[in-house]
Design brief:
single chain, alpha+beta, 6-stranded antiparallel sheet, two-stranded antiparallel ribbon, 3 helices, about 20% helix, elongated
């Protein structure tokens, strides 16, 4: 539904828009306008921003434990993953940004080198340090 709404806006003479549905975002900035600034929450403390990412056009998807707890399972063990607290992916397709973010969470820290190789996408991962209220941003 979000992709369809984004497509409809993109077909119209709307210069800027931001559509957000449950943390998945589609954005576009018109010519001469400033970029959107997307905050990356600290999964250990959602009141705190770890980074602000500039986005001119594209989609943003985040997967992790911050809002829904440990709901993504390791495909090898069937148990909840906990190596990464969140992964935010930015790219041209919301579907693929979401797939890449979720796959990176499921794969844990070993998936970060794979995520770096996804052409046209950029990402930020948050490592769960295990200390209350403490997260570390991993630049990809």
């Amino acid at each position: 539904m979000l992709r369809r709404a984004g497509r409809l806006l993109a077909e119209r003479p709307v210069a800027d828009f931001s559509l957000n549905a449950g943390g998945d975002i589609i954005l576009r900035t018109g010519p001469g306008q400033p970029e959107w600034r997307v905050g990356v929450e600290d999964p250990a403390d959602p009141r705190r921003l770890l980074a602000v990412l500039p986005v001119r056009r594209g989609a943003v998807a985040t997967s992790g434990t911050g809002r829904r707890g440990a709901h993504i399972l390791d495909p090898h063990t069937g148990r909840p993953v906990n190596a990464l607290a969140s992964v935010t992916v930015i790219g041209p397709s919301l579907t693929w940004a979401d797939v890449y973010a979720t796959a990176a969470i499921a794969g844990g820290s070993r998936s970060l080198s794979w995520l770096r190789r996804q052409t046209g996408y950029r990402a930020m991962a948050v490592d769960d340090t295990g200390e209350t209220g403490s997260s570390t941003l991993v630049h990809l």
